[in-house]
Amino acid sequence: MNEDSLKSFLAAKTFAVAGASPKREKYGNKVFRALLESGREVFPLNPAADEIEGQPAFVTIADLPEVPDAVSIITPPQVTRRIIDDAIAAGVKHVWMQPGAEDEQASQAAREAGLNVIDDGSCILVLLARMA
Known about the structure:
Helix 3 runs parallel beside helix 4. The chain starts with a helix and ends with a helix. The chain is globular and about 35 Å long. By secondary structure, it is α/β, with parallel strands linked by helices. It has a 5-stranded parallel β-sheet with strand order 2-1-5-6-7, with helices on both faces. Strand 6, helix 4 and strand 7 form a beta-alpha-beta unit. Helix content is 38%, strand content 19%. 39% of the residues are buried.
């Protein structure tokens, strides 16, 4: 785990969670809630939901009211590729592929585009819990 990458990701001002879920037991909801409860500005991305935890949900990064600095990705790898393409196009600076969302092709594309990429199997919930 690269501590500098993690610190840079968490120092971002705005976040999006791709794969945020309206179901509280789902990992996508737990990550979204953890960022929200830590006082960060965070947008949920889920094309099948109208709102998550009282926040309006958005279909894609391009639909957000502003470009987030960082995106936490909790999607199947084939969806991760599209999220990364959207993140690169939008100008996102940091991406964290949560365990199970990693995709080698997407990671390589993100790194080549100059994004800070975390894809080592580390979990944002573990890090946020340590910081609380």
